[in-house]
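Hypothesis: this fold can be encoded by more than one sequence.
Test: take the structure tokens below, design a sequence, compare later.
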């Protein structure tokens, strides 16, 4: 499938540097861009007008694995590879506090990927994919891949894709006619 290629022009330049750990994920929300960091649980943001990069929030010593937007909120998936540490936090567009959204009943070590697809929010964890509808209902297991982790989720067209981190399998969810 051919994807359009866009040339942003210009050269790549170093935008921001932090020596203590690398960045693991990125998303945009409203007029800001957000980056999550490994190993220290920090989320950095910068608004569209430029200006300085600022630490938006610190989850203190845990890894930030994933960031996404859904509805009027931004979500972050965290963990530390210890069962029970996998959680999702969220913040609304008004800029309120970051609050724990769900802790998966202490069953997961990390929420490795997040994506909005249709009217639902999906989370990839330790081999399982969870789903929550837009109405803010409960998180439920949508699929158990049998793999050790799901570090990649992406919505493309009318399908949802999941990449496994142990066995190298790509899973697809969508209409039957889209599976051919």
């Amino acid at each position: 499938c051919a994807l359009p290629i866009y040339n942003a022009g210009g050269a790549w330049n170093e935008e921001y540097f932090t020596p203590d750990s690398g960045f693991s994920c990125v998303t945009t929300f409203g007029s800001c861009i957000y980056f999550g960091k490994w190993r220290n649980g920090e989320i950095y943001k910068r608004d569209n007008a430029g200006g300085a990069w600022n630490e938006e929030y610190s989850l203190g010593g845990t890894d930030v694995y994933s960031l996404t937007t859904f509805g009027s909120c931004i979500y972050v998936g965290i963990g530390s590879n210890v069962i029970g540490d996998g959680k999702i936090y969220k913040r609304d567009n008004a800029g309120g506090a970051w609050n724990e959204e769900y802790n998966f009943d202490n069953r997961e070590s990390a929420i490795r990927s997040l994506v909005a697809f249709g009217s639902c929010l999906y989370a990839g964890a330790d081999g399982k994919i969870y789903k929550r509808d837009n109405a803010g209902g409960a998180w439920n297991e949508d699929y158990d891949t049998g793999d050790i982790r799901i570090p990649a989720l992406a919505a493309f067209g009318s399908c949802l894709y999941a990449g496994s981190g142990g066995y190298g399998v790509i899973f697809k969810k969508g209409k039957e006619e889209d599976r051919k």
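Residues 4 and 15 are 26 Å apart (CA to CA). The radius of gyration is 17 Å.
Hypothesis status: open.
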